[in-house]
Write a structure and sequence with these properties.
Number of helices: 7
Structural class: alpha+beta
CATH topology: Protein Transport Mog1p, Chain A
CATH superfamily: Mog1/PsbP, alpha/beta/alpha sandwich
Helix content: 25-40%
Largest sheet: 7 strands, antiparallel
Length: 225
């Protein structure tokens, strides 16, 4: 299983094309963004857990998680792997692929895919009640902690299906808002979960909305067989 990074020009912006040939998954990100591989990310998570005096059982979980592919890309002019551990103002892109266990396979639905990262459906329902009759969308009004922007059901070649969501949230009432562009997919046999998460501060999201959409639309899954 190999990850390939290829630099090239596209639509007046320099992009790095990233692919994993073993699982036929592809995307592109700006060439200038810092790349972190699976080992970089796990190492950062283990160090953070140790520094926080987390139990060894949690560290074992971090080591043994069964990702088939995992990478991250940091758009900060001063990149740091720590930006992958917490919310950051500058863009961060995370991509992961993992096998679904039997229970997850049996429970795959659009609802489960929407709620992979956060409890999206619950927060959206609360927001709809609070924002009834008011503007939503990319520059619309927010609740104290959440604003849904849009969602798209995806039905792709080879039976790949899933959802793309865009939303804004903040972890608490004193935090700034952060924006998320989330694509979650499964293959036709519901054997693998493919996740692309693009996140940044709200101002960066508004500034880079077209770029984030270009990255999201480049995310390609072509299951073998």
């Amino acid at each position: 299983m190999a990850t390939v990074l290829v630099a090239g020009a596209c639509s007046k912006s320099e992009f790095r094309y990233v692919s994993n040939s073993g699982i036929n998954t592809y995307l592109k990100v700006p060439n200038a963004w810092k790349v972190y591989n699976h080992d970089d990310l796990v190492g950062a998570e283990i160090n953070a857990a140790r520094n926080a005096n987390q139990p060894s059982s949690l560290i074992d979980v971090l080591i043994n998680r069964q990702y088939q592919w995992r990478m991250a890309f940091d758009g900060d002019p001063r990149p740091s792997v720590e930006h992958t551990l917490s919310l950051a103002q500058e863009p961060v892109v995370e991509v992961s692929v993992r096998a679904l266990d039997r229970d997850e396979h049996d429970q795959v639905s659009l609802a489960s895919l929407r709620n992979v990262i956060v409890n999206y459906d619950e927060m959206k329902a609360q927001a709809q009640d609070e924002l009834a009759g008011r503007s939503v969308g990319i520059a619309g009004e927010s609740t104290t902690t959440f604003r849904p922007i849009d969602e798209e059901e995806l039905n792709l070649p080879d039976g790949v299906r899933g959802v793309r969501l865009r939303y804004v949230l903040r972890p608490n009432a004193t935090s700034p808002f952060y924006a998320f562009d989330q694509t979650t997919l499964v293959d036709a046999k519901a054997q693998r979960l493919y996740v692309l998460l693009i996140r940044s501060g709200e101002a960066q999201f508004l500034r880079n909305s077209q770029l984030f959409t270009e990255i999201a639309r480049s995310f390609t899954v072509k299951p073998k067989g």
